[in-house]
Amino acid sequence: MRRGADTGKDRRQETGLVAQLRRPPGGRDARIMLLAQLLDRIGTGVWAASSVLFFTFVVGLDAGRLGLLLGAAGVAGIAGSPLAGHLAGRFPVRSLLIGCHLLRLVVLCALLVVTRFELLLSVVALTSLGDRAAKTLEMLFATRAAGERRATYQALSRSAANAGYALGAGIAALGLAVGTRGAYEALILGNALSFLAAAALVWRTREQPGHTRVAAAAADAPAAGPRPAPAPGRGPSPWRDRGYLRFVLLDIPMNLDDSILGVGLPLWLVHHTDAPHALVPAFLVINTVLVLLLQLRVSARVRDPRQAAGVARLYGLTMLACCTLIALTPGHGVWAASVVLLASAVLATTAELMRSVSSWELAVSLAPDGERAAYLGVAGMSPSIQKSAGPLLLTGAVMTAGPAGWLLLGAAVAGLAVVQRRTSLHRLDAVPGPQPLSRLRFPS
Question: Which pTM value belongs to this model?
Answer without folding.
Answer: 0.73
